[in-house]
């Protein structure tokens, strides 16, 4: 598995549709200050489902949309498409290539796709959960992050180990199931109330 290509349109400083190909070896992105190197990393995190605007170095989600310059008008939506090689079956999906995309409109509407099919944000997140690539994975090591992990609270550190061990997916599903169970218990209680009133 490796990231083959990234396509950006209207994302931060990328006003025009831009394709970046990544080789299987190391890719280094170099450029002057403010030329958009970090925006590329932000774009990858964003397409993988990052929802924290702080992580994306903004104040609100709309900040990911190209806002315009003296020479170029702003646009109405931002889009990032990531294409991964999956010939080794790293992702548990029947595709040799996996393409995920995220689109965000100024109206606040979001759209996600997996291999061009509309899906929910949750579906995209689930693919990457426990792979080490997702939102809470270790593929993005920012400045000071190693220090942060070492000095963090034991519970937070445990979360990091759980993600690395591949069990956070099951934890998330358990939480979801418990929520559904509580809802069902509420419904049963309401039915019992109605029954006792009818008796
Ligand atoms: P450095 O080497 O200093 O870290 P960098 O190459 O990583 O810089 P970025 O932080 O990726 O640069 O890009 C910053 C640039 O992106 C700024 O010029 C900023 O104006 C531009 N930018 C960010 N968001 C938007 C947006 N929504 N619309 C237009 N331009 C944007």
Automatic annotation (TrEMBL):
Family: Belongs to the SMC family.
Tree of life domain: Bacteria
Subunit structure: Homodimer.
Binding annotation for ATP: 32-39
Portion of the full-length sequence here: 1 to 199 of 1187
Protein name (Swiss-Prot/TrEMBL): Chromosome partition protein Smc
UniProt free text on domains: Contains large globular domains required for ATP hydrolysis at each terminus and a third globular domain forming a flexible hinge near the middle of the molecule. These domains are separated by coiled-coil structures.
Record localization: Cytoplasm
Function: Required for chromosome condensation and partitioning.
């Amino acid at each position: 598995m490796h990231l083959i290509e990234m396509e950006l349109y209207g994302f931060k400083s990328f006003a025009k549709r831009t394709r970046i190909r990544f080789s299987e070896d190391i890719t280094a992105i170099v450029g002057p200050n403010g030329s958009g190197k970090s925006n590329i990393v932000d774009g990858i995190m964003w397409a993988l489902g990052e929802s924290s605007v702080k992580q994306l170095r903004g104040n609100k989600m709309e900040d990911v949309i190209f806002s315009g310059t003296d020479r170029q008008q702003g646009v109405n939506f931002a889009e990032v498409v990531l294409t991964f090689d999956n010939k080794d079956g790293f992702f548990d999906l029947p595709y040799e290539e996996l393409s995920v995309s995220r689109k965000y409109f100024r109206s606040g509407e979001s759209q996600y796709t997996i291999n061009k099919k509309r899906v929910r944000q949750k579906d995209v997140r689930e693919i990457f959960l426990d792979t080490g690539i997702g939102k809470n994975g270790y593929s993005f090591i920012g400045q000071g992050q190693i220090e942060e992990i070492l000095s963090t609270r034991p519970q937070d550190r445990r979360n990091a180990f759980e993600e690395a061990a591949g069990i956070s997916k099951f934890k998330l599903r358990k939480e979801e199931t418990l929520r559904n169970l509580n809802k069902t218990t509420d419904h049963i209680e309401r039915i019992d109330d109605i029954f006792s009133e009818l008796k």
